[in-house]
TrEMBL record:
Keywords: Membrane, Transmembrane, Transmembrane helix. It comes from Streptomyces humidus. Signal peptide: none annotated. The chain crosses the membrane at residues 25-49, 55-72, 120-139, 151-172, 184-202, 223-242, 248-268, 275-297. It comes from the Bacteria. This is Prenyltransferase. The keyword Zinc-finger does not apply.
Amino acid sequence: MSTVAVADIPGRLGRFVLRMFRPHVYATYGLLWVLALEGSAVALTGTAWRPDGATWVRVLSVVLALLFLRMLDEQKDLAYDRVHHPDRPLVTGAITPAELRGAMAALTAVMAGLNAALSATAVLLILAALGYAVFLAALERLSAAVRDRQLLNLAVTYPVQVLLGVYVYGSLAAAGTVTADRRGVLLLGLCACVFLHFEFARKTAWEAAPGARLYSADLGPRGSAAVTAGLAAGAVVCQVALFAPDGVLGLLPCLTAVLPVWGARRFLTARRGGWPVLTATGFVVTTYLALAVRAVLLP
């Protein structure tokens, strides 16, 4: 590789990040997710919560982990993208697999270094999430069923998100900030329902192009819509179980459920197009934001 080509790698990576990672989207999601999870975990102990230096290490680690996963997904989906998304950077040669792998190695080193300032447990937990993601990429290459069957793929890939949640909660427990108990399981379940509601919503439609990776292609439009709505309901159930003792004010985040209710009504009455993704995105943002604000205001 020439000196000029090497010098252009940061620019190529930067363009890839701006196009495929959309920092304003992923960074906002990572920020709100960590603040909601950490804030709720601390508030449930009856302790006042305010973000500190460790909080921002967790936020940055999760955002960088999401970037790592985006780079990994781009590589493992290359064959699919050649057919369905021929304008993607890896397909067009705007970035190469070697450049993405080098960036992933650098991200791993940065995350390990950041979390070394928290605890050895934090380092192990963030590396476990990344390691599982790499394992899954290899598994998809070996197994056509895991690669092509949408629901099976979700079942084996979603635990990466769970492991990132465990990283946030586990690093808090390792620091002695919270005591791991069943409330931690409910919090992680709440986050899972919120994310999976969005995941199903964006892949639920009345029509599906040949080869499109939609859950509604397997479950049918109504079945996929039922799962999408049910996941939002699951998030509300988790909130009630966790925060009912705090009274009406503690349950205010449940009001965000109006968005999936409206989304389900619109999807089922339209009988065409897809689930209104704006309602699903709004549910994620407003739920996490409401939980973070609740943690600041209560107890």
